[in-house]
């Protein structure tokens, strides 16, 4: 059936391509949004479902699937404008729906930011519709919650998770996003977080560790033996995550310009460097390279470059890759075993090391290596890292203060949210569900390897009753082998 023509008066009121819209910027931003979305769905979903023990594959995937959907609805109902709307408090915006047609088809708005480039005044106001910006920022919010989930896989009550996602998004994530990106006090003060080293990675790492503490540990048998159920599938998910990061950092300038190109190149350079350094350390200390270790090195490189991807030169990206492939390796393989607090908290995928530690490292290194000319392309005020002299030392101190705020807020807010949920819903699954896994929690199994209706019995179906587990030397990335959790 033919589509009825739009009335002329309405066409004039709502042009498809208004004068302010730049088709190139608009197309790139929607592409970047899709790339970031793919990092979660299916990237992290595949990684989580394949890196855990097979009895938790379905539950881990479902936690990602639910979070992606729940965050989107909460985002458009109230949370987007809490993070990027009008100021309510110095660290929080006024919540309101981002659903009205008049609001969404108008020009996207970001905190006022004008600066000088080659003697000309440049504005960072995007040249595309608000709907594009709302979705782009949603993908960042969603991946933050999903990264957090990695700390509590294999034992958090799914109903508690369903309640936790919207509450944490509203009372924790939006605060960091507004403070650093939405025009809040840290943004006004000049703390740099180019694409989420603090807002996303430090937040998810600290909140994940906090949640793991309150939810409690996995079963002893799961902690001692937690092998990935499909390493090759895990690599496929890791590949989606790596390639999607071009949209993650390339979309941060809100335009398809020079900073985007620099950010994408630096992102891949840092990831590759970190992966190689991590792998070399595995060979030196464990005698063989590990595929899981290589993925961890990839991840820490991507996380470390994120806070300064478009602001540092490519030689600095290599330095950041070297440090992100070695410092988190040390905290995970050595310090983790010596720290009694970390030993007490069962962070399933070691999100604290790969995201909190590495995100903090990246933020501090950005305070050192932020290059003045590159900073002029995207930042509202003249900025330089400490390496470049001048007031760079002050910038480094600002980076420390910004990190401390994000750490403190996530520690406190996550604790309050979980304690409030615990009044109504147990945070941890019942013991019988923990023993069986997916079949008990969802009535579904990832692999139909035995008869219909048969409950999971680790003595018959798992690694514990298999001679295979006795013949294979334990991986350094399996919890208990060297005091290290499988992590990402």
Automatic annotation (TrEMBL):
GO terms for cellular component: plasma membrane. The chain crosses the membrane at residues 27-51, 63-83, 127-149, 161-186, 198-216, 228-248, 254-278, 290-309, 315-336, 348-370, 400-425. It is a multi-pass membrane protein. Keywords: Ammonia transport, Membrane, Transmembrane, Transmembrane helix, Transport. Belongs to the ammonia transporter channel (TC 1.A.11.2) family. It comes from the Eukaryota. It comes from Citrus x changshan-huyou. SUPFAM superfamilies: Ammonium transporter. This is Ammonium transporter.
